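Quarterly update, task 2.4: adenosine monophosphate-bound model.
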Amino acid sequence: MKVLVIGSGAREHAIVRALSLDPAVDAVVAAPGNPGIEAVALCEPLPGGVTDADAVVALARRHEVGLVVVGPEAPLVAGVADAVRAAGIPCFGPSAKAARLEGSKAFAKEVMSAADVPTGMAHVCTSLDEVADALDALGAPHVVKDDGLAAGKGVVVTDDRAEALEHARGCLDKPDGRVVVEEFLDGPEVSLFCICDGEQVVPLVPAQDFKRVGDGDSGPNTGGMGAYSPLDWAPAGLVDDVVARIARPVVAEMARRGTPFSGVLYVGLALTGRGPRVIEFNARFGDPETQVVLDRLRTPLGALLLAAATGGLAELEPLRWSDQHAVTVVVAAHDYPATPRTGDAVTGVEEVPGAPDAYVLHAGTTRDADGVLVSSGGRVLSVVGRGSSLAQARERAYAAVDVVGLEGSHHRRDIAERAERGEVTVPA
Ligand code: AMP
Ligand code: GLY
């Protein structure tokens, strides 16, 4: 089977890498891909961007692929998976209607309410007065979310009422702007990816992501600065519980509405003292959690994604996992997430020891006119370390981070540190 992967981040690099290790996958094409992906796959340009459904279908036809995998949210919300399926090609990724679970937080709340899924109390607001009332009703800390897609930057969590109102004003100023004001959920966060085929749900292993830009969870939210798996501190039975109480009811509700969900249902959770609560759904693999989750997957990825795309998850054998630990650290550009600088030389990537112990996945990289590897985005590299303990995986990841160079870059030094010290606990 030939597979076409849409996207250009480290998540897509991890997906392409895993597919290229699958003996049943003969070739991988990526569009647009990146210089790291180029080492394992053929990269094709997408001049109209990843939301250009006609161009994606044309590429899939030209390369006669048996499966298209859509990485990012924007093409899913834009209906790229619908167009691929309409052309008769299996596609891993939800329809535009099903991707609304990620595309609109208000819609996600409505589905959760209909499916009786545990989540925080929330008010959907269309005016600043409504926001002010909601802030007072729910109290501090305040959680204010842009209803629509905002690349991980739509959420503000703050004790400062004025700051909460200011963020809401910015969101409401957009065309059809809506904000969701939500109850603060206290407890460690977990990301669980559930592979769905419209009916069946197959969970992957949980991972933890670090959303804030700075050490000790300081500074603004980002797309994600690092991740690790497994979570040795997570309660026994967590995955079964989340599948039974959250993923299956949501998939059933989406099917009941005539918009079945296939692809990845990314369940973002807070493990509160009252049990797991949904913080968000995404309709795609998370970045950077995918980098550590796929590092541990031993079942060939191609067959899993094809089964999801063709309604065949019920026949799939149980997934196999490595018991190794994986840690990824994101190397970000100067001034990410505010105004990331691009065009800086990326050095040392070739000197990293290499898989399986430590390897570099590319995110925001490109080659300049002279063929020099330079930065082209906010998150530039995702460096993965693997080990028989979390400590060893961290050590290998950070040793590799110290080998790569990027002028003005920054990264967190404390990814998985509290877990290594046994300090992560679920509130009683
Ligand atoms: P989201 O885009 O909804 O995942 O939100 C981004 C980040 O904001 C989450 O990963 C949490 O760290 C934080 N966050 C979102 N909603 C809440 C909430 N209700 N309570 C506490 N923190 C939250
Ligand atoms: N790591 C968070 C996300 O992919 O949205």
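Highlight for this quarter: Residues 238-256 form the longest helix (19 residues).
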